[in-house]
Specification:
The protein has two helices and ten strands; from the N terminus they run ααββββββββββ. It is mainly β. The N terminus is likely disordered.
Length: 183
């Protein structure tokens, strides 16, 4: 086989492998429609959060969340920053997370996130039956953690984090109440 023929064969193989590696497209209109169920979160939010660090130890934060649609409404982008409160004044960044939430017919809603500490994961998101909220969670050493976000009748973003050793009895680990400051 000549060098030119070998080169053409290599290019053909690479093109075939590359085309097979492309992600499968799903219906963008269906994805946008599913994501509209979470449109109530779009905007800029700010408020207070409290996290339990151990028995009798809590820390307070001023939390902001920037939420917007991306990729033509197919993805919800969530960018949150918590600043430690010192004498009621926000100080250093104590927590930062970035997430992308989307929907596909074969798997439902899914959240991919990363924190400033390098923690990352992909989580199943379950919309609440009454709408205006959802839950997600994951296994941790010694148990399970879950988070529930609800939009209250007053229009607040209320988020609660909980931990359970057995999946039956849950203990609150975090609470956040935010108000929308801009759409």
């Amino acid at each position: 086989m000549s060098a030119v023929a070998r080169g053409l064969a290599t290019v053909s193989i690479l093109a075939a492998v590359s085309s097979n590696a492309q992600p499968v497209a799903s219906d963008p209109a269906a994805r946008r429609e599913a994501m509209q169920l979470l449109a109530y979160l779009v905007g800029s939010w700010s408020g207070d959060a409290r996290m339990t660090l151990g028995p009798g130890r809590t820390e307070s934060f001023r939390q902001t969340e920037q939420v917007r649609f991306a990729v033509g409404g197919q993805v919800l982008v969530i960018d949150g920053v918590g600043r430690a409160l010192k004498d009621g004044t926000p100080g250093d960044t104590a927590f930062q997370a970035f997430g992308m939430l989307d929907w596909r017919p074969e798997r439902g809603y899914q959240l991919r996130s990363m924190t400033h500490e390098g923690r990352e994961g992909t989580f199943v998101v379950t919309p609440l039956a009454e709408g205006q909220g959802f839950t997600w969670g994951f296994e941790v050493p010694g148990g399970r953690t879950r988070y529930t976000i609800r939009l209250t009748p007053e229009g607040e973003w209320h988020e609660r984090g909980e931990f359970s050793r057995d999946g039956q009895q849950w203990f609150q680990t975090m609470e956040m109440r935010l108000r929308r400051v801009a759409r």
